[in-house]
Amino acid sequence: MPDTMSTPRHGAAAVLAIRPFRLFLAARFVTATAFQMVGVAVGWQIYALTGDPLHLGYVGLTQFVPILLLALPAGHAADRFDRRHLLVACLGVEALAVAALLILSLSPTPPLGTLYAILAVMGAGRAFLAPANQSLVPLLVPPPLFPRAVAWGSISYQVAVIAGPAMGGLLYAFGPGAVYGVSLTLMVGAAVAVVVLGTPLIAQAAVETGLEGVLAGLGYIWRRKDILGAVSLDLFAVLLGGATALLPIFARDILDTGPLGLGLLRSAPALGAAAMAITLAHRPLQGGTGTKLFASVAVFGLATIVFGLSTDIRLSMAALAVLGAADMISVVVRQTLVQIRTPDSMRGRVSAVNWVFIGASNELGEFESGLTASWFGAMPAVVIGGLGTLAVAGLWAWRFPELRKIDRLG
Q1: 3-state helix, strand, coil in the chain (%, to 5)
Q2: How does pLDDT run across 219-240, given as a tens digit for each residue?
């Protein structure tokens, strides 16, 4: 176990004094940056090849199916084995997949089937990467610093989500191969940072084997209605309200901008989220946490509606920034609840279930967005999704009073 207990207990920067956490944060940042860059390149490339919004939905679906199938055994692996070794192996798989995209980009008309197959491999790697990633932080920092660690991790991720799409949009001017080449370099660097951590990071308590052990995370979340409410609220709110998959359509057909404009649009939610994450790192939620959570989801839905109705890129980016800030509150509450209120011997499996919910809300949400856009058009699809998010916030506030009544995290 790293020397974390001698770390100062107070102040937003206290958690950054822990060297293993800093290395982990760096690895997470460059990995997230690479994923965002690949997302811009793949989305623009596939829409340019097909001109069909449904294919943008297939991008999310192709990555979600492996996550759904592999998440539970991946969570079990995170609780049984050294999480650092799992991270290195997963980053190796992701690097190989990006290398395949790089090779495929040499063709002016790469086969769609091969592109989707590579994305499925990336989804499989992320299925194992996420629970090892999410369950690692409690082994790096003492419990009193964990909410701040979540906030700093969110800041790191959101900065990557700001920088990654913008970098991807700029590099795409030189072709998708330039994006994939830089992303590959970043992933290799992330693997090196994890190796340098050095300290074994494995749960100390015994972990059940067999099917009972694999399914234990599901049972734990089902019994904890506060955690179940938080992760399911995020699932349905983002599933209905997410508009990320349709950004190539808005960039090209509605807002009349190019790959760089797409990168800016993808960065806007992260800009708002990063600002909120910095605020929460310095001033964590202190009271009325449950009420603030539901209010943030309602703001998320309203901002989604504004974005769906906008035909001005400045208003669109502002709406996306507000959307990102509201979503960050939900992210911090959910991650803190899941990690602090879960025993270490089960964090990998509970994180895996949480990741299925996140993957469903993001990747499956992309498929839902592409499908509804193919039926109704992009703008009506986003507005309908925002209205659905408002309905979910009201229904969940009534259905999960345990979550609504939470006063403080911890």
Answers
A1: 85, 0, 15
A2: 777 778 888 888 888 778 877 7
Q: Among residues 207, 198, 205, 206, which one has the least CA distance to residue 84?
A: 198
Cα separation of 238 and 49, whole Å?
27
Q: What is the DSSP string of 168-236?
A: HHHHGGG-HHHHHHHHHHHHHHHHHHHHHH-S-----S----HHHHHHHHHHHHHH-HHHHHHHHHHHH
| Average pLDDT value for the chain | 80
Residue 112: count other Cβ atoms within 10 Å of its Cβ.
Answer: 14
Q: What is the pLDDT of residues 315-330, one digit of tens each?
A: 999 999 999 899 888 8
Domains of the chain: 16-404 (1.20.1250.20)
Query: What is each CA distance from 80 to 210, 254, 354, in whole angstroms?
Result: 12, 49, 18
Contact 194, 91 (CB under 8 A): yes
Residue 182: both structure tokens together: 């830089």
